[in-house]
């Protein structure tokens, strides 16, 4: 049987042999925390029943390296079995690498994403109106926003000029104002991993992937690792009203994370995240092909600042959280009818990749057609208790 997922070697980071990579796999016993060692996935759930338990340690990379466990198979075999079209449910397959962490996301963190959100808003979600509005917005803003620091006096002066020109937008406020947009992307345990389907609502006629770096943050605010994410975006629904953000962002299988978490250690740190390049490719059954790159160096808000805006004295996360850092990707290439830009079709294969985090690969389906999300926190706790993994 042919498969839409790539070979295992292309899914792992270029320097996987030197990386501390952890994740989760479904085993015959239940969800298990795993670490990659010499090409094998080792189940360390006897020491760390949940990923939350591991990421709460003072040094998660050291803790993962020293944890005892049992090999469940090669990464290549487990990855191949993750394909929902060819899966043997009696054998291990990959899951989203997070479990009890809250799934948060930040938006409008790149200048281009701010501009596209303003365009969506003014187009009222109508893709056909976007091109003319884009020209108007770009003409009003002028110049290069890459060096503009949100909340700075220069940013506030630009905001005032745009307001005077009738260009005020709620996206302008979070794009160049002092406060970042931080929202809840998905419920705990609702994210999906690499090698499976992601969902868009059948009613959406203007949508796109959002390739992003995702940081993993412990309950005390420490950023302990990173992975990749697809913050699936329904542009027409959010464009109709920002108050529809929940409907546009939180649907069945609309948040993907993976393939594995790379924990910070001597060879990989937040500075490496700040320099990472994220590549996107979309391949459709209609022959459509698209590719693009996002460079983290172009982000307007530092990852540490975004984490601090999400958590602190004003808001705590006792099980930690993950935070999508935002995207600079907003496709405008026409797919089909001229002037309507890009939108997904069922069957699109989306690959989000970076040299040091690997590749997150998903296939697009309608959210309504996917298997319902049914394994929640109570189910996880019951499973772990039955396996004798809870203290």
Automatic annotation (TrEMBL):
Residues 223-365 form the Fumarylacetoacetase-like C-terminal domain. The keyword Protein biosynthesis does not apply. One of its GO terms (molecular function) is hydrolase activity. SUPFAM superfamilies: FAH. GO terms for biological process: small molecule metabolic process. The keyword Membrane does not apply. It holds the Pfam family FAA_hydrolase. It comes from the Bacteria. InterPro entries: FAH, Fumarylacetoacetase-like_C, Fumarylacetoacetase_C_sf. Keywords: Hydrolase, Metal-binding. PANTHER family: 2-DEHYDRO-3-DEOXY-D-ARABINONATE DEHYDRATASE, FUMARYLACETOACETATE HYDROLASE DOMAIN-CONTAINING PROTEIN 2A-RELATED. Belongs to the FAH family. This is Fumarylacetoacetate hydrolase family protein.
């Amino acid at each position: 049987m042919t498969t839409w997922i790539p070979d295992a070697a292309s899914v792992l980071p270029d320097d996987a042999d030197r990386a501390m990579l952890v994740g989760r796999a479904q085993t015959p016993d239940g969800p298990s925390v795993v670490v990659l060692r010499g090409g094998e996935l080792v189940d360390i759930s006897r020491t760390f029943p949940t990923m939350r338990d591991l990421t709460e340690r003072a040094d998660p990379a050291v803790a993962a390296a020293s944890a005892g466990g049992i090999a469940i198979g090669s990464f290549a075999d487990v990855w191949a079995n993750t394909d929902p079209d060819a899966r043997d449910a009696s054998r291990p397959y990959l899951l989203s690498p997070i479990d009890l962490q809250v799934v948060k996301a930040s938006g409008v963190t790149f200048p281009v994403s701010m501009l596209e959100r303003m365009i969506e808003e003014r187009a009222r979600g109508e893709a056909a109106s976007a091109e003319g509005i884009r020209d108007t917005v770009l003409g009003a803003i002028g110049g290069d926003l890459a060096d503009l620091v949100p909340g700075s006096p220069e940013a506030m002066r630009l905001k005032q000029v745009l307001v005077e020109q009738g260009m005020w937008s709620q996206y302008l406020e979070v794009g160049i104002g002092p406060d970042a947009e931080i929202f809840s992307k998905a419920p705990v345990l609702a994210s999906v991993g690499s090698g499976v389907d992601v969902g868009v609502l059948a009613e959406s006629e203007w949508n796109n992937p959002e390739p992003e770096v995702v940081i993993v943050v412990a309950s005390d605010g420490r950023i302990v690792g990173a992975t990749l994410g697809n913050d699936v975006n329904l542009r027409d629904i959010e464009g109709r009203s920002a108050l529809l953000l929940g409907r546009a962002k939180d649907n069945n299988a609309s948040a993907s994370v993976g393939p594995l978490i790379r924990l910070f250690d001597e060879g990989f740190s937040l500075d490496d995240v700040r320099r990472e390049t994220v590549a996107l490719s979309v391949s459709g059954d209609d022959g459509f092909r698209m590719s693009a790159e996002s460079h983290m160096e172009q982000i307007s808000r530092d990852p540490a600042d975004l984490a601090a805006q999400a958590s602190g004295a004003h808001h705590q996360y006792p099980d930690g959280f993950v935070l999508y850092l935002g995207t600079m990707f907003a496709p405008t290439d026409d797919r089909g009818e001229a002037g309507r830009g890009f939108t997904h079709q069922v069957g699109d294969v989306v690959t989000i990749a970076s040299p040091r985090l690997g590749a997150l690969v998903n296939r697009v389906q309608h959210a309504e057609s996917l298997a319902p999300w049914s394994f929640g926190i109570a189910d996880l706790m019951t499973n772990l208790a039955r396996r004798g993994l809870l203290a």
